[in-house]
Amino acid sequence: MAALTEIRSKRSAPTPIEATDTVHFSSTRRRLTPAQRKWAEETGFDAKPGSVCLLADTNGKLARVLVGVDRQDALGALAALPTMLPVGEYTLDADSVPLDAQLSALGWALGAYQFTRYRKAKRAPATLAVDTATFETLAPLVSATALVRDLVNTPTEDMGPKQLADAVKHLGKVHKGKVHEWVGEELLEANFPTIYTVGRASHRPPRLIELTWGKASHPKLVVVGKGVCFDTGGLDLKPSDGMRWMKKDMGGAAHAIALAGLIMHAKLPVRLTLLIPAVENAVAGNAMRPGEVVVTRGGHSVEIDNTDAEGRLVLCDALAYGAEQKPDLIIDFATLTGAARVALGPDLPALFANDDAIADTALAHGRQVADPMWRLPLWRPYRKMLDSYLADFANAGPSRHAGAITAALYMERFIPDGMPWVHLDTYAWNDGDRPGRPRGGEAMGLRAMFAFLQSRYRA
User: So what's the pLDDT on residue 287?
Assistant: First the structure.
């Protein structure tokens, strides 16, 4: 939490930031000296969102900072400042334009993130001082977001199925959870045929990683994450531009791992099962072929129409296994379809749910914590798009229509009637740099789902 520090009574006063959304500096005007006001005007500070003006005292020492903000975007209001301002400690002035204190501080911390596994940080971030309660609330969220970003940003050579398993094992060690995994042909012996089939062509064997935690008397919660560590498309090979960023196809697993960490850190009263099917969808002589039929753990026969629709295949075995535990709720995260991005763009995860009340509550919490999602329908007439002439159904079909919906409908077949289920089709990626959202891996829907779970399972 280098970007946020707690305010302590003996600490010398940090440099204040005064946020303003008007050129007249709003309530700060009366507190500026004539020289400071003239300096702001001479340097062209116009209080537009993102504009910054540094003000010195009579000794030439940095005394305050004026920042133009969009007060409708508290999360992004201060997010560019950690790498813009001189290194030091700052606090938001009490007379500033009102901003949501937690969201603006969270945005500051998210804006300080840098991925440093392969190179040094470009610079140290400036620090925002916050009260102890805010720090304790935000610290787990910032750490969880950084974990998602780190996992997704790491290239496949250093983030294969084993490394995902290592991340789960570390989580289990920290929170005293139990971890078990099935590796390679153990998947066949334990009846996880689709996970094995998707991953069998890689030199790194596929696996299913399971973490369990919590008291048996608490409601059962199953969290599943798609862990396709690299996706070539299989024999239905992706073109080079479509394959370039497929290290991020384990973004669903990254979200599920981070959410499990938040649940355990908060000690939510649940009996948690985390399931990560981890594979590489590779090309080799034993690769899964179009036209094959696989009988899944759920007992359905599935025709492989497209080897590049592999995410739903690894997920369906995990979902069927999770459903066998008769949970109160199943949540899955997956970087599942390009169709969701076409429909909603890169910022909005598509949310599917078989329970309207759960969907509405999850969406409301997403809005409250500035982590928006958008619901798409489980339009069951579209199931016919996955019809097969020789199996129960196919994993894909000839139509390009409603790709995100048909993928969700495929997975819904593995959820028993009446069992609450939420599916997030998330991008897990920023295509470019924006305040608080650096280019690369991103947590999308993580804070929303954690807030939803906190409300559903109050300690």
Answer: 98
Cα(140)–Cα(260) distance, integer angstroms: 12
Neighbours of 25 (CB within 10 A): 22
Q: Beta-strand (E) ranges in 192-341?
A: 207-213, 220-225, 227-231, 271-281, 293-295, 301-303, 329-334
The enclosing H or E element of 361 equals helix 356-368
Active site residue 117: no
Q: What are 51's two structure tokens?
A: 């504009």
Q: Which of these is catalytic: 37, 71, 169, 238? A: 238
Which SS3 state, helix, strand or coil, does residue 309 take? coil
Distance CA(168)–CA(395), nearest Å, equals 28
The catalytic position among 64, 207, 312, 447 is 312
- DSSP annotation string for 372-439: --EE----GGGGGGG--SSSSEESS-S--TTHHHHHHHHHHTTS-TT--EEEEE---EESS-BTTB-S
Query: Does 400 participate in catalysis according to the annotation?
Result: no
Instruction: To the nearest 10°, report the CA torsion of 230, 236, 239, 240.
Output: 30
Question: Are the beta carbons of 53 and 81 closer than 8 angstroms?
Answer: no
Domain annotation for the chain: domains and CATH numbers: 4-125 (3.40.220.10), 142-456 (3.40.630.10)
**How many Cβ atoms from other residues are within 10 Å of residue 127's Cβ?**
22
What single string gives the DSSP state of each residue in 95-143?
A: TSPP--HHHHHHHHHHHT----SSS--SSPPPEEEE-HHHHHHHHHHHH
- Give the predicted TM-score (pTM) of the model: 0.95
Q: Compute the chain's Rg from CA coordinates.
A: 24
What sign does the dihedral 211-214-216-218 (CA atoms) show?
A: negative
Sign of the Cα torsion 321, 323, 324, 329 reads positive
Q: What pLDDT does residue 93 have?
A: 87
Closest CA to 341 of 333, 349, 332: 349
Residue in 274, 297, 299, 288 with CA at minimum distance from that of residue 188: 297
pLDDT along the chain (459 residues), means of 10: 52 68 45 87 90 91 92 92 94 86 95 96 94 94 98 98 98 98 98 98 98 98 98 98 97 98 98 98 98 98 98 98 98 98 97 98 98 98 97 95 98 98 98 95 98 92
